[in-house]
């Protein structure tokens, strides 16, 4: 395995790119954007798939070996499947994973399997259709739920991402864990983050400790699992259950010390931390005529200046409005 050349000032090597292919989504989840939506980027401002491929090639050349495709909802952008086919053949790229809301999984399942993409994260915040509708502002629960089991039955590795919040879905925490009893699912509970496109942070106080305490009150026997060094989740398993669950301290940011991720938005904004301001706009740099060497130097310089953690990165941002998660790329 090639050692990444993307090294920050604290000695952390980055080998994982989160690539957003669109800021558009067919849901309107309350923690991601307002009900009326956001001002989506004009089409001309989005990176073309060819530009995304060229930039991905640059990243891989510097040591990125895993790319997660995010959005918005990745599958709402026309041309995504041909792009993924081309990306999957990129020499040096070991893994492509996808985060989706699950509404279009069945439609694209065969293509994903053919190109070797077998890991998919589905954002699902409730197992109750009424609560699902309140959270997403869409009536698509049955489609998503059936699609999850369609993926499982076809051999995909499926993780369910559930954002936990007071008065939204606390009563779903235990049912999610029970879903792992007979199914090889990994459920991850996430702290709510302040990226909903408004001035209101939306954080409801359910941090990772409170989530765990709630679970521990229901289950007296919870085994902690050994996680990968760069894992953002602390993972657990109920003895005898087929699947597992994890808790991601996305707001508390306890995993910053081992973070190996870098983000590229659909409009070309490069972020070395989700909480920090863009380090550069690669779209503008590419379209100004920069060559490969110049692009590589931009990437190396941006990573080298990465802050110690999300709090230090956040201190650099002066935005009063919390950017929509669909624009940030998840």
Automatic annotation (TrEMBL):
It comes from Mucilaginibacter polytrichastri. Keywords: 4Fe-4S, GTP-binding, Iron, Iron-sulfur, Lyase, Metal-binding, Molybdenum cofactor biosynthesis, Nucleotide-binding, S-adenosyl-L-methionine. Pfam families: Mob_synth_C (PF06463), Radical_SAM (PF04055). The keyword GTP-binding applies. This is GTP 3',8-cyclase. The lineage of its organism: Bacteria, Pseudomonadati, Bacteroidota, Sphingobacteriia, Sphingobacteriales. Its EC number is 4.1.99.22. GO terms for molecular function: 4 iron, 4 sulfur cluster binding; cyclic pyranopterin monophosphate synthase activity; GTP 3',8'-cyclase activity; GTP binding; metal ion binding. Its cofactor is [4Fe-4S] cluster. Residues 9-229 form the Radical SAM core domain. SUPFAM superfamilies: Radical SAM enzymes. It catalyses: GTP + AH2 + S-adenosyl-L-methionine = (8S)-3',8-cyclo-7,8-dihydroguanosine 5'-triphosphate + 5'-deoxyadenosine + L-methionine + A + H(+). InterPro entries: Aldolase_TIM, Elp3/MiaA/NifB-like_rSAM, MoaA, MoaA-like, MoaA_NifB_PqqE_Fe-S-bd_CS, MoaA_twitch, MoCo_biosynth_MoaA/MoaC, rSAM. GO terms for biological process: Mo-molybdopterin cofactor biosynthetic process. NCBIfam families: moaA.
């Amino acid at each position: 395995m090639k050692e990444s050349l993307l090294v920050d000032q604290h000695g952390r090597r980055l080998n994982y790119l989160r690539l957003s292919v669109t800021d558009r989504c067919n849901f309107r989840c309350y923690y991601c954007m307002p009900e009326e939506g956001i001002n989506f980027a004009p089409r001309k401002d989005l990176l073309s798939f060819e530009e995304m491929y060229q930039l991905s090639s640059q990243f891989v050349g510097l040591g990125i070996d895993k790319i997660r495709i995010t959005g918005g909802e990745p599958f709402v952008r026309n041309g995504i499947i041909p792009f993924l086919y081309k990306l999957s053949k990129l020499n040096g790229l070991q893994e492509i994973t996808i985060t989706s809301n699950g509404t279009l999984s069945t439609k694209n399942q065969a293509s994903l399997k053919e190109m070797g993409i077998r890991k998919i994260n589905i954002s699902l915040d409730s197992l109750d259709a009424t609560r699902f509708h309140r959270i997403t502002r869409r009536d698509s629960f049955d489609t998503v739920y059936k699609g999850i089991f369609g993926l499982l039955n076809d051999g995909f590795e499926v993780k369910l991402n559930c954002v936990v919040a007071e008065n939204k879905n606390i009563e779903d925490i235990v049912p999610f864990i029970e879903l792992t009893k007979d199914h090889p699912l990994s459920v991850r509970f996430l702290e709510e983050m302040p990226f909903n496109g408004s001035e209101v942070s939306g954080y409801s106080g359910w941090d990772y400790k409170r989530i765990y305490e709630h679970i521990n009150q229901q289950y007296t026997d919870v085994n902690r699992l050994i996680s990968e060094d760069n894992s953002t989740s602390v993972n657990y398993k109920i003895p005898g259950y087929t699947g597992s669950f994890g808790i991601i301290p996305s707001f508390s940011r306890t995993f910053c010390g081992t973070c190996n991720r870098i983000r590229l938005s659909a409009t070309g904004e490069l972020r070395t931390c989700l909480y920090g301001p863009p380090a550069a706009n690669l779209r503008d740099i590419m379209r100004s005529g920069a060559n490969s060497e110049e692009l590589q130097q931009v990437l190396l310089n941006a990573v080298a200046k990465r802050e110690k953690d999300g709090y230090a990165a956040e201190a650099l941002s002066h935005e009063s409005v919390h950017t929509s998660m669909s624009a940030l790329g998840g």
